[in-house]
Every structure is written in structure tokens, then in C-alpha cells.
Amino acid sequence: MGNAASGKTTFARRLSGALGVPHVELDSLFWRANWEMAPADEFLADVESRLTARGWVVDGNYHSRLGTSVLERADLVVWLDPPFRTILSRLLRRTVRRIRTHELLWGVNRETWSAFLARDSLLVWAMRAHLRRAATAEWLAPFDVVRFRSARDADAWLQDRERGGDARARSRR
């Protein structure tokens, strides 16, 4: 889990590959054509249907939609929590690239300049999420969590997993 542009999807793809388990990207289950949100019951059913495998790596947050249902099934929660300047830089580069190239997201949507300009923009969401980190730490407290505040630390941990290290090995919180 982590803020927008924290590296969740890239990290999750690598970890699922290292572990040989499916990668479940929550955004791909949540967003429908024209940025319509999946109905709550359908979204929950889609997510739960993918958590029946012996192992999986889920990337995304959606705490307000899923509660702790995914966290309760996880062996370990990885929280990517880089500084906001890193989030902002990545978010700006990624979003501008997606707008310029008309990149399809989850096969059905494209980002537009409203990602920056709308009242409920991705940029505003990212700022709010960053400011809520203390609350996030609180609701994650009951779970087994490894928290990375830098890409370098997350990458080192992932490299160890890719070399066959214990996926539950801990790092600094």
C-alpha cells in the first residue's frame, strides 16, 4: 500500500514475480470506463474472488471501500511511504506522460489535465493522503507491517526476495 505514485504497482509486480504468486491490482478492479467507480458489492466480490489462491500480492489501498478485509488475510503489509517531494515528482512526471501519450489505464480510461486541475484531482488526493499518514499508521498497527520511506530501502528488500530471501523478513518500520 501507499500514496499515489509511491511505487505500489511496480513493487507488487516484482514481489509477485519473486514469490511466484498472482498480482492483484485494485485499481484495475475498481475503475470502470469513463472513470466510473465499481459498485461497492461488485468491487468487494471481485477482490475476494482473487484472494482465494494460495498466495497473492495485492497493490492498492481502498480502505474506505474494503475496510480491513484484505489486510486481515495478508501475511505481511508493505507500506511504501516516501517523502512527499518524491510522490509529487513521480506523480507529475507520470501524469504528464500519460496525458501526452494518451496511455490507456486499465484498458478503458485516459488521464486528462483534470488530474491536476479538478477539485477532486489526483494531486489533491495525494496531498490529503500524505497528511493522513499518522492515521494510516494507527489503523495499520494491528497488522504485520514493513514500512519503507525510500525507494532504495524498498528495492534492497525486494532484491533479497528476488534472490529467494524470506518474504516475511522485516525491515525498519
Describe this structure in words.
The chain is mostly helical and 173 residues long. The chain has a single domain (8-162), classed as P-loop containing nucleotide triphosphate hydrolases (Rossmann fold). Helices cover 51% and strands 8% of the residues. It is built from 10 helices and 4 strands. A two-stranded parallel sheet has the order 1-2. Strands 3-4 form a two-stranded parallel ribbon. The two termini are 14 Å apart. The model has no long low-confidence stretch (mean pLDDT 93).
| Shape descriptor | globular
Approximate helicity band: 40-55%
- The first-level CATH class is given as Alpha Beta
Quick check: average pLDDT? Answer: 93
Give a brief outline of the structure.
The protein has 173 residues and is mainly alpha-helical. It has ten helices and four strands, in the order αβααβααβααααβα.
